[in-house]
């Protein structure tokens, strides 16, 4: 295997695979993707016995990279939040190595550190990446560790450090309060050593569920209980991601209801949706062979997709198309004919956004007329934003072999872990954007996962963005006479907006996927910001999503 001497990033998932027993209990057995199941059901079985336990297996990978001529890695992203994380010694050995006389063998000159191990030792970072410029740390809310990081022998030893981000995940109210009380002192101490250091400390809301084991200090301990592991993974950034948009959502929803402007049409192409608990405006149509209505029967997956959209964009007008999953005409999850018919119907109703959390294998336009027209409709349609989910099936299933995710005019969405990186099933596929899709709690209070949920979240986020822009152009009499919707309602335009919501410039976008953090852009006091003037607030919101430099060349309204 040939490598360049310089790598932009190295991204590795949590190293421990599912056990054989877990795989047997979750496999579908036929290898087909179903939108009704979580990503856990899509794991393929492999023969052979389980591997023996190894403490720190990624040492071998970094040794291989060094021996293959890689002597510079700009960014490392390692998911190590599990029951058996690498030890501090294993991390040091992986990145620096040791020779017979205990001297360092290698130095990758790492600049961005995202080794997602809880309560990592600062000395490990200093030895493994002494010239790191951007550091991401993960705390289990042990204030002793936080004080160690802030001490003179801790993070201040990193003299090239420019930015520090700390995510704290307390598991009870006392720890949360302790960390909140110490946060200011933590930042103040670090600024004593480096006044130019940009520090971002986020203390996540705790979900105390009665766990009383005082011996546990975080995922750096080898005695993490399964119950607490589930608690951390079921909560942190999936539920908070939506909760943190509540003020922005309420502000836009209030203006929409007050002025009766800014309506957004979102088409949901899925297995239908139940109507109870689905507040708001919606219509639908069924494309099943048996004529069963779009809200009758199971509709489990589509109902969850509609709920995801409405949680972010309550003012959306939903156009719910029920695809044919009867299996009568075609032996696959949804018939291609029904996919085509539903897409025609959605476009005829002049929707703004189309959400598709499914895919079908492409045979080629010369072999399938339905597929040909479906693909041509998406490729040739302007002023509509198409979202499609990745399959969550692993590296053997590439986007280009499937539709709609493999089509050029589609924004490709994948689920993110609680730390904002791609779920391991999709790390080898091209991704546009990452949104919460792991360890979500659905309406039945069960935990679900999959890129389909991330795709519905993307559709909802795009919907409320369009609503915000429409309200701004309607309410501001001094609004520039360029049509901002012309830009926003295109694949490139919405992609640029999403880049800004991910705190990235569009020019820096790559195929590893950008995790969206809209609350950082929309985090303002809507009652007091700029005097509470609605139009001024809208102007600031829109400017943060569509900077002036990106408005050049837009047509007049």
UniProtKB/TrEMBL annotation:
It comes from Fusarium xylarioides. This is Peptidase S8/S53 domain-containing protein. It comes from the Eukaryota. Residues 20-39 are annotated as: Disordered. One of its GO terms (molecular function) is serine-type endopeptidase activity. GO terms for biological process: proteolysis. SUPFAM superfamilies: Subtilisin-like. Gene3D superfamilies: Peptidase S8/S53 domain. Residues 264-466 form the Peptidase S8/S53 domain. InterPro entries: Peptidase_S8/S53_dom, Peptidase_S8/S53_dom_sf.
């Amino acid at each position: 295997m040939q490598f360049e001497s310089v790598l932009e990033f190295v991204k590795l998932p949590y190293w421990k695979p599912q056990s054989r027993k877990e795989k047997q209990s979750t496999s579908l057995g036929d290898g087909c993707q179903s939108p009704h199941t979580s990503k856990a059901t899509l794991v393929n079985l492999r023969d052979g016995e389980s591997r023996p336990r190894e403490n720190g297996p990624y040492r071998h990978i970094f040794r291989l990279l060094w021996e293959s001529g890689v002597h510079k890695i700009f960014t490392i992203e390692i998911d190590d939040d599990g029951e058996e994380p690498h030890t501090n010694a294993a991390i040091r050995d992986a990145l620096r190595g040791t020779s017979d006389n205990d001297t360092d063998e290698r130095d990758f000159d790492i600049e961005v550190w995202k080794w997602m191990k809880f309560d990592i030792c600062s000395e490990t970072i200093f030895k493994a990446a002494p010239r790191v410029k951007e550091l991401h740390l993960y705390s289990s809310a042990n204030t002793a560790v936080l004080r160690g990081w802030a001490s003179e022998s801790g993070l201040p030893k990193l003299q090239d450090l420019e930015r520090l981000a700390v995510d704290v995940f307390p598991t009870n109210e006392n720890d949360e309060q302790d960390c909140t009380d110490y946060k200011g002192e933590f930042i103040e101490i670090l600024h004593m050593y480096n006044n130019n250091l940009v520090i971002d400390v986020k203390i996540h809301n705790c979900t105390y569920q009665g766990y009383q084991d005082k011996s546990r200090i975080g995922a750096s301990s080898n005695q993490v209980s399964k119950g607490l592991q589930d608690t951390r993974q079921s909560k942190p950034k999936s539920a908070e991601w939506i909760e943190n948009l509540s003020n922005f959502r309420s502000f836009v929803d209030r203006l929409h209801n007050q002025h009766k402007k800014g309506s957004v049409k979102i088409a949901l192409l899925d297995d239908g949706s139940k109507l109870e608990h689905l507040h708001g405006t919606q219509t639908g149509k069924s494309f099943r062979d048996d004529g069963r209505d779009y809200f009758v029967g199971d509709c489990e997956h589509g109902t969850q997709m509609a709920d995801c959209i409405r949680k972010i964009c309550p003012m959306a007008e939903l156009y719910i198309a029920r695809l044919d999953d009867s299996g009568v005409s075609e032996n696959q999850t949804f018939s291609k004919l029904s996919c085509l018919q539903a897409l025609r119907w959605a476009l005829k109703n002049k929707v703004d956004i189309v959400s598709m959390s499914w895919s079908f294998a492409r045979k080629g336009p010369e072999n399938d007329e339905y597929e040909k027209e479906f693909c041509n409709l998406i490729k040739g349609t302007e002023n509509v934003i198409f979202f499609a989910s990745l399959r969550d099936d692993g590296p053997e299933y590439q986007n280009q072999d499937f539709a709609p995710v493999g089509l050029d005019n589609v924004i490709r969405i994948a689920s993110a872990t609680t730390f904002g990186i791609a779920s391991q099933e999709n790390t080898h596929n091209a991704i546009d954007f990452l949104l919460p899709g792991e360890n979500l709690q659905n309406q039945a209070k069960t935990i679900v996962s999959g890129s389909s949920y991330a795709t519905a979240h993307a559709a909802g986020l795009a919907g409320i963005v369009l609503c915000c822009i429409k309200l701004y152009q309607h309410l501001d009499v001094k609004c520039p006479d360029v049509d901002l919707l012309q830009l926003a309602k295109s694949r490139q335009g919405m992609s640029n907006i999403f880049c800004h919501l991910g705190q990235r410039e569009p020019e820096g976008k790559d195929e590893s996927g950008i995790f969206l953090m809209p609350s950082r852009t929309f985090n303002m006091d809507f009652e007091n910001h700029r005097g509470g003037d609605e139009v001024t607030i809208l102007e600031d919101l829109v400017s943060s999503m569509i900077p002036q430099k990106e408005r050049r060349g837009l047509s007049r309204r």
